Predict the structure of Class I SAM-dependent methyltransferase.
Amino acid sequence: MTDLTTRTAARPVTRCRTCRADDWQDVVSFGSVPLANGFLDPAAAYPDEPRYPLGVVSCRSCRLLSLTHVVDPEILYRDYAYVTSGSDTMVRHMRGVAETCRRRFGLAPGDFVVEIGSNTGQQLAAFQDTGARVLGVDPARNLAAVADAAGVPTLPEFFSAGTARQVARDFGRADLVLGRHVFAHIDDISGVVSGLRELLTPDGVFAVEVPYALDLVERLEFDTIYHEHLSYFLIRPLCALFERHGMRVFDIERLPVHGGSILVFAGFADGPWPVRPVVSELLRLEESAGLYGDAAYRDFARQVERTRDGLRSLVRGLVAAGERVAGYGASAKGTTLLNICGLGSAELEFCSDTTDLKQGKVLPGTHVPVRSPQAAAQDPPDCYLLLAWNYADEILRKESAFLDSGGTFILPVPEPSIVAA
Ligand code: DWN
């Protein structure tokens, strides 16, 4: 087991991880914040709860958005509380990703699919259903064990160029390497991409799904800024990164999941995949949105402050008026939102969540207790602050009886708003 006391827990970022420049624009800083998935066992006090600097800068060379500090991944991921959501929304999405890849790249039964950050293997199981041979790579030993038990072979390791070589040697080259909401979590993404040269077949495809920084800025999704998300990608920095490694982005899909994401397809520059018009179309869209200049990020920071103040006032006003308020969905973005908006157990009685690993714990920083939906339904509040707003449609449908009984939801971003029946 790594001795974490001898490792640098939070290291400042110097050079841009996609283009290597060191010309940064300060964007936002939220001070020292607990880890978004740093759930705690209930206790009288939490003197040793770690907090780390949380802030974002923009690279003026390629316009990657990056955290200012990198927290040691051993701290973040070796025992991980986040389980890929089993929500209808995500199950449908993962099936869609498998079908898109199968159809678009002609994946045939027996073709080899590797997933970086494979969690409990749900996404790879969808590829197994199409006949693919699969292998997961995920450092969370607790989750890798669940995947293995479910029949999805998984290496409990961080993915790196060395892991890529090991997989190619032991299992053969991959026709598809997939990374869903993991690429933004890795500091040495240059090492990951260079590893793909060792792992992919010559016609192989790297499919990477990440939150889209254009959606983050335009929809004010500042609560998705937390220590696990080191990078916030536009197409421009991704193109810069792949081109540095003899690869190129050849196709992109915009997706609604996680507040707006992009599924980016990259292959070797001398490979068979033609670059589709969507690549230049999104580059033009990013430029017309002003995201290649400083002003857009100054505006973003100002709007974040307004939303933080507005949400704090709205929730505290409801509590002062005698309303009982609770959180709904102990998401990483949700714990972050509470900590950076200064909301906590003075305002929220509890937070409900469907994840077994989180129930009975308290939220990081605010120490709001997490209850199962069943326990929450026995004594529902007057109002839920929807911390899992990316599932709003599904959740509001599911909670129609709560709404019909006069209950309300607060949607926190882009502008705090109240939803009632
Ligand atoms: O990048 C990441 C994204 C993909 O997933 C990871 N760094 C961490 C994680 O972020 P998150 O925790 O914000 O993800 P979710 O899927 O938005 O979290 C939703 C939370 O809400 C889960 O804990 C499950 C819970 N939930 C619930 O209690 N009732 C979800 C639904 C749909 C519900 O009905």
Observations:
- Residues 1-292 form a domain with the Rossmann fold fold (CATH 3.40.50.150).
